[in-house]
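Tokens for chain A. Residues wanted.
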């Protein structure tokens, strides 16, 4: 290709809004990830990571929180694999850091060996780690050495001593068992079936599940419930466990909730600060990002609407002063540093659930999502005075 043509092509790409937004999101994700994965790769996570918390016990849990939650959000991007583009070379770096992290986190002789079975919290973050492996099996599981695979499986199995709460926590146990089914050819079907059936009973209508028997106005349908329910059902279906019809029902409900999430984003890229765990920031939009990733958006929502909306939300929150400390670690808050927003179970590691909003990066740069001009999302259209389709409840 002549140099002048190459320059024109690069200039055109740099002026393309979708590619510019993707570049920003990739840079943001690795900015969040770098302190965690770099320290863990050197077996120095426990040594280097600050622990901001309201209670003194969070050091028992915060390191697995940071690693599992971060990797769950990064996994679809890593699963694209390395290539010779600048982004592909960057992916190679973080794939290698993640694999080293998996080794160090699960090796009982490692300084950064993590707690998988003492107290109740580890079942939560082992599930996020399992979620990461389910989302990126070719890059995060297949290339691992035999000893590391065995250590991971042992760590997952060790969580079975923890009895999950009678609420969204059932899905943590179910997700771990789904990973064991996929990677060890056996997962406890009772733990999976129980979580699935209880959430079917707890469905409240219009795309929303209760967190247990009661409905809570918070973002747990996106933080945990709907993504993990879909992934457990998909894993069972892939293992020929006849879950297709159940999966399709759950997917239709998730599509409705994704439509609601898209409408919750204000024209300015804010959203209602409702409910607990607001310190997970834009991780509140994991479900919208996931439904976009699997190309299941409702027909009246264009991918460019979601791209532009998520980009605006993420950029607004990340650039708030105080989001990061002076060494690049996340600090508690929704917009900047707001320590009182963190509940007693929140610590520095908890905050890395925000990475779940980056699932759309699992669609490569050539995908339709990253093409064409930005589209206004629904609230932006409404408050410009533009016409929009009416909203109707789901089942």
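Reply:
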């Amino acid at each position: 290709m002549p140099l002048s043509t190459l320059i024109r092509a690069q200039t055109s790409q740099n002026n393309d809004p979708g590619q510019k937004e993707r570049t920003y999101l990739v840079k943001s994700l690795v900015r969040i990830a770098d302190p965690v994965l770099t320290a863990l790769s050197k077996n120095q996570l426990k040594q280097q990571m600050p622990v901001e918390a309201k209670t003194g016990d969070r050091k028992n849990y915060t390191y697995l929180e940071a690693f599992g939650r971060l990797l769950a959000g990064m996994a679809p991007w890593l699963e694209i694999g390395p290539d010779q583009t600048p982004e592909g070379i960057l992916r190679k770096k973080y794939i290698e850091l993640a694999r080293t992290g998996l080794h160090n986190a699960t090796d009982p002789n490692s300084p950064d060996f993590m707690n998988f079975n003492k107290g109740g919290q580890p079942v939560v973050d082992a599930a996020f780690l399992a979620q990461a492996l389910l989302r990126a099996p070719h890059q995060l599981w297949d290339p691992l050495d035999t000893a590391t695979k065995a250590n991971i499986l042992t760590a997952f199995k060790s969580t079975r001593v923890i009895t999950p709460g009678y609420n969204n926590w059932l899905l943590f146990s179910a997700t771990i068992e789904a990973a064991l089914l996929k990677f060890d050819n056996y997962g406890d079907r009772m733990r999976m079936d129980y979580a699935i059936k209880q959430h079917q009973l707890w469905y409240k209508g219009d795309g929303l599940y209760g967190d247990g028997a009661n409905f809570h106005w918070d973002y747990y349908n996106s933080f945990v419930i709907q993504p993990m329910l879909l992934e457990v059902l998909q894993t069972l279906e892939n293992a020929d466990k006849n879950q297709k019809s159940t999966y399709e029902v759950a997917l239709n409900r998730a599509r409705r909730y994704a439509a609601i999430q898209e409408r919750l984003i204000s024209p300015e890229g804010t959203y209602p600060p409702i409910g607990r765990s607001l310190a997970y920031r834009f991780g509140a939009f994991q479900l919208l990002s996931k439904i976009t990733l699997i190309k299941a958006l409702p027909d009246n929502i264009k991918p460019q609407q979601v791209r532009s909306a998520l980009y605006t939300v993420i950029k607004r929150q990340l650039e708030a002063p105080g989001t990061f400390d002076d060494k690049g670690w996340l600090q508690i808050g929704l917009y900047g540093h707001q320590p009182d927003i963190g509940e007693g179970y929140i610590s520095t590691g908890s905050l890395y659930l925000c990475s779940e909003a980056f699932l759309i990066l699992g669609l490569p740069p050539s995908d339709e999502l990253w093409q064409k001009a930005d589209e206004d999302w629904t609230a932006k259209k409404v408050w410009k005075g533009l016409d929009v389709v009416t909203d109707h409840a789901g089942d």
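The two ends are 54 Å apart (CA to CA). The CA atoms of residues 127 and 172 lie 5 Å apart.
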